[in-house]
Specification:
By secondary structure, this protein is an alpha+beta fold. Helix content is 35%, strand content 30%. β14 and β15 form a beta hairpin. It is globular and about 65 Å long. The structure holds adenosine-5-diphosphoribose and P-hydroxybenzoic acid.
């Protein structure tokens, strides 16, 4: 097989890249190791930055999102039984976010790719990327028990943290930066209307809680739990009781609606960046290059930024012969990646109580929350980061 762009992985990064390239008249082939049903039922994040919404609309992939997505103009920070709303448009000059599940984004992109795009091969496991430092990199893959080779002009590794593409960067050129956290998230889906019309991020001495949503009738919620927690140890009554405690407030008008749980899972927390995000004709995008703790809702949005940057750079090269934007891919993406890492780390350490937290640590967290909820500059930094960093980073101000 031969194509212009070989894409490994049909998560949001790979699927959106295939869509963007198709819309630009550039052919690609997507190799996905899992089957369609598995990809379409994975529960992941649910917040789209304004930039992501714009890219999906430009790509002609936003029809259902615009019908079913829920625009959100703020979030609530809850601590010490207090409620504080962060007003996104007021702080960012009009930016907001959209509550629309990553699962739904992937379903929409798969349907479009199968209907209009190039080959999207499910149960096609990439085994190795070779020739990244040549003009025809190759992906060896296995499908239906047979090994084949996809010959490409470019390969984009969108195969997530556990994929194979990163291994094609020579070890001597790879630099990784990592932090793991001593806690995880227990996530639940419940068939009950959300108890608030925006997301609630709660810092509590018992641990962090997040109240999110998937639709006007489905609640999504998370609890900080010790790393390595088995979800089977958390029955529904215990989950609702803990959410009640951590979301407690002095506001008598607010209560948490309980309902039947339909899914429970545990997600570990990690910060990770691989540099560079390019080697020769191999480009890394999304979780294949970086991981953020989910507190800042950045994972999907970073993946969108990476593949949008690559697609625009490739089109520019095709139309002008100028390779400079492709050459700048890694540096361009990493500026945005590190800002998202900074924000995700800040939100995670602001709201989660580490098992070894001291009274001093508690007071620092409360002082940081006090600063954010009383100083417009601090609140603006949170609102700007949460609603999204520009795809084309602002020029560094000369001193
Ligand atoms: N061959 C083919 N496909 C592979 C291989 C392989 N060797 N290894 C992994 N994959 C597939 C996975 O099955 C998955 O469908 O690559 C895809 C990677 O998708 P994601 O992990 O979702 O990564 P990405 O597209 O970068 O999206 C990042 O997804 O996991 C969330 O929190 C993350 O929100 C973030 C977003
Ligand atoms: C979600 O709805 O899954 C979600 C929302 C916001 C986050 C993390 C997860 O910060």
């Amino acid at each position: 097989m031969r194509t212009t762009v070989g894409i490994i992985g049909a998560g949001p990064a790979g699927l959106l890249l295939a869509r963007l390239l198709h819309r630009a008249g550039i052919e690609s082939v997507v190799l996905e190791s899992r089957d369609r049903a598995y990809v379409e039922r994975r529960q992941r994040a649910g917040i789209l930055e304004q930039g992501t919404v714009d890219v999906l609309r430009e790509a002609g992939a936003a029809a259902r999102m615009d019908r079913e997505g829920l625009p959100h103009h703020g979030i609530e920070l809850r601590f010490d039984r207090r409620r504080h709303r962060v007003d996104f448009p007021a702080l960012t000059g009009g930016r907001s976010v959209m509550a629309y599940a990553q699962t739904e984004v992937c379903k929409d992109l798969i349907a479009l790719q199968l209907a209009e795009g190039g080959p999207l091969l499910f149960e096609a496991e990439a085994l190795e990327v070779t020739g990244a430092d040549t003009t025809s990199p190759r992906v060896r893959f296995r499908r239906e028990g047979r090994e084949s080779t996809l010959v490409c002009d470019y390969v984009v590794g969108c195969d997530g943290f556990w994929g194979v593409s990163r291994a094609a960067v020579p070890e001597g050129l790879s630099r990784t930066f990592e932090r793991t956290y001593p806690f995880a998230w227990l996530g639940v889906l419940a068939d009950v209307a959300p108890s608030h019309d925006e997301l609630v991020y709660a810092r509590h001495e018992r641990g962090f809680a997040l109240l999110s949503m998937r639709s006007p009738t489905v609640t999504r919620a998370y609890l900080q739990v010790p790393d390595g927690t088995d979800p089977r140890d958390w029955a529904a009554p215990r989950i609702w009781d803990e959410l009640d405690r951590r979301l407690e407030t002095d506001d008598p008008a607010w209560t948490l609606r309980h309902g039947p749980l339909t899914a429970t899972s545990v997600t570990p927390m990690r910060s990770y960046v691989h540099e560079p995000m390019r080697h020769g004709r191999l480009f890394l995008a999304g979780d294949a290059a970086h991981i953020v703790p989910p507190t800042g809702a950045k994972g999907l949005n970073l993946a969108v930024g990476d593949v949008t940057t690559f697609a625009r750079a490739l089109v520019h090269h095709r139309d002008t012969g100028d390779p400079s934007r492709l050459d700048a891919y890694s540096a361009t993406c990493l500026r945005r990646v590190w800002q998202a890492e900074r924000f995700s780390y800040a939100m995670t350490t602001l709201l989660h109580r580490a098992p070894d937290a001291t009274p001093f640590d508690d007071r620092i967290q409360l002082a940081r929350l006090d600063r954010i909820t009383t100083a417009r500059s601090a609140e603006t930094d949170l609102a700007e980061a949460y609603t999204g960093f520009p795809l084309t980073p602002t020029e560094r101000k000369s001193r």
